[in-house]
């Protein structure tokens, strides 16, 4: 053989090998990288999905899933289980997706669903000779067999019908039990029911209602698996466009679909009737929507006006009540103050008399021992009488404080006695008065004075009353000395206002009590001597100065009280 022939033979071999590599290597790479999805389904639900006599997955949904895999280039692997295990298999990741899943509450809560791929109708089956029924309501008081965990279970639960439900593992098992005498009726999907009756030779069963409910069934994936769901959404659309969907449906439900007039004829005649009706309906819909928007707008305006009127009426009633209450409180405070003042005036005299009498009684006790006095022994009365006087004086002083709060509450606001006030100085003076109370309440107290704080026009004594009340409330809100209080001042240039804040991490305020904090006589501490006037009087003083109180609280975490006061009159 000449060298030329040998050279040509070698070149042909090399070209053949090159062509082989060009075509086989990409194919192998594509095959190696082909995506695979494990799809779960019901092992016993013919003709939709089931395991056939050869042990293979079969049925309408199985063929449809395979067609979706071919259209999207994804390998579909099937794992058909008992229906009761499908939800757990999807949540555990045993399967990537499920087929023939209803749009029920359970699946909408736990999974992502595709658009329906098929509409399945449920029917009511009964033994021949059973009483005739026409609706689900006729099943009241009857024993009804249903598929455990199926969509019909959710539908019956939502309807709240009072019936005795008997559960079966599969539709086939349910119809077998019905045929053997268990239960009165069974609700099963129509086609699986008819298939079971024919296959199992259950000749004593019949359909009494062919369609009690119809529901869409599609594909489901775990939440967050948008890529997997997109494969089924896109694949289903491609299968329908290609005509493959109709072929699969004809294969499994051809007898049903071929009954009656051809769809093309129905569509042709329907167009002549439906198009004008749709145009008319569209016009009516647009007109109805415009009327609905107009009615909604008028309704909102009327509702808003009625709400404003109701609020104004409440304000007028409240103002009238407060005016009457102010007059009443002023008179009551005056009537209480006079006899209480007399008590406070006489208590020092009683103390002096008690001290002098005790010296005489001590001499008697030294001479003749213990003796009876005031319904008890002298030794006991000697110990208790000073405490009784102390308790009387403390109670009288508490009455005096309550009367002063009542007088402040009923006082007519006056712009008199206004001076330049430095909020930092008022805060420092208030803290000196509260030093003992603060130290008893907490080990963690901090105060911050803002630098360059502008002064405001006001009454320092009345503002001091507000600060003392806010800090005492914070002390009383603490559950122990390990909790903290932070007090500080600040200036808001935007609103031209000085701000006092009192923050604690105590027990906080219940949400239902927040709106009533400054309401007169409202208190959550009445058992501890609270009168419900502290914040009410404080709010009135702050309003005299053109400001307002603001409260922010989280139950169990603490409260922040802010007193916002305008630097210039009317600036807040």
Give keywords.
572 residues; alpha+beta; 53% helix
Most strands sheet:
9 strands, mixed
Determine the strand fraction and express it as a percent band.
15-25%
Helicity range: 40-55%
The radius of gyration over CA amounts to 44 Å
The gross shape turns out to be: elongated
Low-confidence segments: 18-32, 257-262, 412-416
SS content category: alpha+beta
What is the number of beta strands? 21
User: What distance lies between the first and last C-alpha atoms, to the nearest angstrom?
Assistant: 112 Å
Mean pLDDT: 81
Number of helices: 15
Summary?
By secondary structure, the protein is of the alpha+beta class. The protein has helices at 3-32, 60-72, 86-92, 105-110, 151-159, 171-179, 190-200, 226-242, 244-257, 263-368, 378-410, 423-433, 435-441, 460-477, 534-544, and strands at residues 36-42, 44-45, 49-51, 57-58, 75-81, 97-102, 111-113, 118-127, 143-147, 164-168, 185-189, 205-222, 372-373, 376-377, 419-421, 444-448, 456-458, 484-492, 497-504, 548-554, 558-566. Strands 1, 5, 6, 7, 8, 9, 10, 11 and 12 form a 9-stranded mixed sheet that branches.
């Amino acid at each position: 053989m000449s060298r030329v022939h040998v050279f040509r033979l070698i070149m042909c071999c090399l070209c053949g090998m090159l062509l082989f590599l060009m075509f086989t290597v990409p194919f192998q790479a594509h095959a190696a990288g082909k995506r695979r999805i494990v799809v779960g389904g019901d092992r016993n639900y013919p003709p939709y999905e089931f395991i056939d006599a050869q042990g293979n997955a079969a049925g309408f949904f199985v063929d449809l899933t395979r067609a979706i895999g071919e259209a999207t280039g994804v390998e579909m692997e099937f794992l058909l289980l008992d229906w009761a295990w499908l939800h757990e298999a999807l949540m555990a990741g045993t399967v990537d997706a499920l087929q023939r899943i209803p749009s029920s509450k359970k699946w909408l809560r736990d999974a992502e669903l595709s658009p329906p791929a098929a509409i399945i109708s449920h029917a009511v089956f009964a033994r021949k000779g059973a009483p005739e029924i026409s609706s689900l309501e006729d099943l009241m008081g009857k024993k009804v067999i249903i598929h455990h965990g199926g969509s019909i279970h959710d539908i019956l639960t939502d309807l709240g019908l009072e019936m005795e439900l008997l559960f079966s593992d599969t539709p086939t098992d349910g119809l077998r039990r019905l045929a053997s005498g268990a239960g009165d009726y069974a609700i099963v999907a129509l086609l699986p029911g008819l298939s079971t009756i024919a296959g199992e030779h259950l000749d004593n069963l019949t359909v009494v209602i062919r369609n009690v409910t119809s529901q869409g069934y599609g594909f489901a994936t775990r939440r967050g698996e948008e890529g997997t769901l997109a494969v089924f959404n896109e694949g289903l659309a491609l299968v329908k466009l290609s005509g493959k969907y109709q072929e699969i449906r004809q294969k499994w439900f051809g007898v049903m679909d071929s009954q009656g007039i051809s769809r093309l004829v129905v569509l042709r005649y329907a167009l002549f009737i439906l198009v004008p009706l749709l145009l008319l309906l569209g016009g009516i819909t647009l007109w109805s929507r415009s009327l609905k928007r107009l009615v909604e707008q008028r309704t909102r305006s009327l509702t808003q006006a009625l709400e404003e009127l109701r609020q104004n009426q409440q304000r007028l009633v409240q103002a009238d009540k407060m005016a009457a209450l102010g007059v009443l409180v002023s008179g009551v405070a005056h009537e209480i103050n006079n006899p209480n003042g007399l008590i406070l005036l006489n208590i020092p005299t009683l103390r002096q008399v008690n001290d002098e009498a005790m010296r005489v009684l001590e001499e008697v006790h030294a001479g003749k021992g213990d003796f009876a006095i005031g319904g008890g022994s002298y030794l006991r009365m000697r110990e208790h009488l000073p405490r009784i006087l102390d308790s009387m004086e403390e109670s009288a002083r508490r009455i005096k404080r309550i009367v002063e709060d009542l007088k402040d509450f009923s006082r007519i606001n006056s712009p008199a006695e206004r001076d330049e006030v430095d909020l930092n100085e008022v805060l420092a003076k208030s803290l000196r008065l509260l030093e003992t109370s603060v130290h008893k309440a907490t080990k963690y107290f901090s105060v911050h004075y803002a630098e360059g704080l502008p002064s405001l026009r006001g009454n320092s004594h009345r503002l001091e009353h507000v600060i003392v009340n806010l800090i005492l409330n914070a002390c009383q809100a603490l559950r122990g000395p390990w909790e903290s209080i932070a007090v500080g001042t600040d200036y808001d240039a935007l609103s031209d206002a000085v701000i006092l804040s009192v923050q604690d991490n105590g027990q906080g305020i219940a949400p239902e009590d927040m709106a009533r904090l400054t309401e007169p006589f409202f208190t959550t501490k009445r058992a501890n001597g609270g009168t419900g006037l502290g914040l009410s009087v404080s709010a009135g003083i702050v309003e005299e100065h053109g400001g307002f109180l603001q409260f922010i609280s989280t139950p169990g975490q603490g409260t922040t009280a802010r007193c916002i006061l305008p630097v210039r009159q009317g600036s807040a």
